[in-house]
Write a structure and sequence with these properties.
Strand content: 5-15%
Strand order of the largest sheet: 4-3-2-1-5
Order of helices and strands: HHHEHEHEEE
Helix content: 40-55%
Radius of gyration: 22 Å
Structural class: alpha+beta
Distance between the termini: 31 Å
Largest sheet: 5 strands, antiparallel
Number of helices: 5
Shape: globular
Number of strands: 5
């Protein structure tokens, strides 16, 4: 019963996180459209006066809302990860009990299959829950997201190649979690200027394979987006 409740709560949290990501994308699109000030651009002109070409109170309100949504996204993601650990522990315990109760007839336990061994040996932080409400199982993927796209400029290489605000990064080229990510991610982009880089992301609970091409453009950086380390 506990596992059932945790699974239901996790499914609900995943739906809530998807709604947060949709709203974040909508605000990002408005703030980065042509003529807009962007996510952190100046609201005053070159002489220090408030810009007259934008609605400053609306921009400030949307920026505040985006910051709130980022915090909500972090909290929801953390709760989902906690629930996944609970489900992982429950599944491993159930599998262990099931196999121990099975006997070969010679007094030895039935050998646990390689699939169950894989699940049992996989650290909880490397477990991801797929959106499968009819199953109480935890599906094992190779890793969990290590970064999230929390800023992306309109018409940037990242946007044109298919990345979206809220995308969670499982793999970026040769980078798959680990230490010094703030240095390794830009280094990976700089090492692959004008070359395609394979990227694996999670978007609204779905694993997606993309390719991006770091390149110079009218904006800053080679990608025009910002990764926040999870």
């Amino acid at each position: 019963m506990v596992a059932t409740n945790v699974k239901a709560e996790t499914m609900s949290l995943m739906d809530k996180r998807t709604a947060v990501e949709v709203e974040m994308n909508s605000i990002n699109a408005r703030l980065t459209q042509p003529g807009a000030p962007g996510l952190s651009g100046n609201l005053v002109d070159s002489e220090g006066f408030p810009r007259t070409d934008i609605d400053i109170p609306v921009v400030r309100s949307e920026r505040r809302r985006l910051a709130e949504l980022r915090n909500d996204h972090n909290e929801i993601t953390e709760k989902i990860n906690q629930n996944i650990q609970i489900l992982h522990a429950a599944r491993v315990g159930n599998k262990s009990a099931s196999f121990k109760s099975s006997d070969n007839g010679d007094g030895s336990d039935t050998q646990i299959s390689s699939t169950v061994d894989a699940v049992a040996s996989t650290p909880p932080q490397n477990i991801l829950l797929r959106h499968s409400p009819d199953s109480m199982d935890v599906d094992v993927l190779v890793s969990r997201p290590f970064a999230m796209v929390d800023e992306i400029a309109d018409a940037s290489p990242a946007a044109e190649d298919g990345l979206q605000l809220g995308d969670q990064i499982l793999k970026f080229g040769s980078v798959e979690a680990g230490d010094n990510l703030l240095q390794r991610l830009p280094s990976e982009a700089q090492s692959n200027v004008d070359r395609t880089v394979p990227v694996i992301i999670i978007r609204q609970g779905t694993v997606i394979n993309l390719t991006v091409t770091p390149r110079t453009w009218q904006g800053r950086g080679l990608m025009g987006c910002h990764f926040r380390i999870l």
